[in-house]
Each structure stands twice: as C-alpha cells, then as structure tokens.
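RESIDUES AND SHAPES:
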Amino acid sequence: MIYASGRRIWGLMYRHIALYRASWPRLLELAYWPTLQLCIWGFTASFFAARLGSPGIIAAGALLGGVLLWEVALRTQMGLALGFLEEIWSRNLGHVFVSPLRPWELVAALVGISAMRVAIGLAPALLLAWLLYTFDIFAIGPVLLLFVANLMVMGWWVALGVISLILRHGAGAEALAWSVLFGLTPFSAVFYPVSILPAAVQPIALALPSAHVFEGMRQAIAGGGVAWGHLAWATGLNALWLAAAIALFANQFRAARTSGALISIGE
C-alpha cells in the first residue's frame, strides 16, 4: 500500500519535474523574483550599514534575513498553489482522479514540488547575498532549520486555503495564488517588530506563525540567542492553521467531486 502510494506520488512529481527540465524559462522564473528582491533590499541594507555604522549593520542583517526567509514562505505557497493550477490549466485534473490517485497523494506530490521550487529558487539569492553583501544567513545556526520549516508549513496551509477557494469559486479565485501571502506581509513583521504595529493590529500579527519566526530571527541576528518561546508559538499556530486548512480542503474537494467541478473547473 505504501509502495503503491509512493509510486503515484512520484509519478505526479515527475510530471512536473519534466516540465521544468524541458523549459529553461520556467527555471529562470523560479530564481528571478527572489534574486530581484534580494538586490533591491540588499542595496537598501548596504545604505543603512554605511550611514548608521554598527546599528546599521544589525539592521542590514535583519533586512536581508527577512527577505530571504519571507521568500521561503512565498515560494512554498506559490509552488503548491501553482502546481495545482498547472493541473487545471492543462485540463488534467479530471484525468488524474480517474486514476487511483487519492487527494492526499496529490497534495503530497505538490508539497514535494514546492520544496524543490524553493531550493532551486533561493540558491542563487543565497549565493548573491554572500558574494555582494557578505551576508551568510547560515550564521544564525541550526535554529535556521526551525525558522525555514515553520515558514514552509505556513506556505503550505495558505496554499491549501487558496486551493479550497479555487475549488469553491472556480477560475475567478486563481489570482489569490499570487496575492494572499503578499497581503499577509504587513502583519508578518518581516522587516520590523510587532510592537511597531498599531495596537489593534498586533493580535492579528501574533496569530500568524510568521510574525513569531521573524521576531525570533531578529533576536538571533542581534546576538540575543534562540527565542524558543516564539518558535513554540510558531509551531503551535502552524499546527492549528494546518489542521483547519486540511479540513477546509477535504470538505471543498468532496463538494467539487460531487458537483463535477473537478472536470469543469477552469472552463
């Protein structure tokens, strides 16, 4: 049973890998936006470091770390959501579910593809951060893996929520695949602490795992050690939001299968 599921998951992953292997523009697009964002914010960070001295260097590190880690969440979310949209655009969703493939196997395959997209897309940006700005995000230490893991999980549950809306509302909701996580950026405290936000908005920020991740990242870059409290909050919130997103996806998938939307969606 496990072997059969693994073969089905790999089969769907290979379909997407083949698309990237045969198309260099697709591969270029993966690295384009993370690299562009790094260059824009990298020069801004260099300006702060040159003008403000030691405090500016700390601020520059926080800016570059925020850019790179937020790209992890963005690329993860887009990788999963766009992988699902690829099946819709190619009119392949109905064919996929005529096969023995189960919904969770589809999601598992798309999760694997999104992880691959993150690795390919961020590798050039990480290299440029070191070459152009002498910034090494790995200097944070092993805790970086916990930051990345929490942001990837957040990207996945946001993507499941977007996919659920697409299943419910059809092609009209496709634009959400690009916009939802950008809309959460102001509340995620990527470039500034939560305390800067208006008091009425702070509870919204603290309900997001990303805000706790970036608060912890800034503490680590400033030499304040590991913020285990923030990491615990991020992990717990991710578990709650992921469970809610899975329940929503399962409900919308059943409804789409019953109504026939799996075949007609996108038309």
In short: The CA atoms of residues 31 and 123 lie 8 Å apart. The radius of gyration is 20 Å. The chain has a mean pLDDT of 88. The first helix runs from residue 2 to 21.
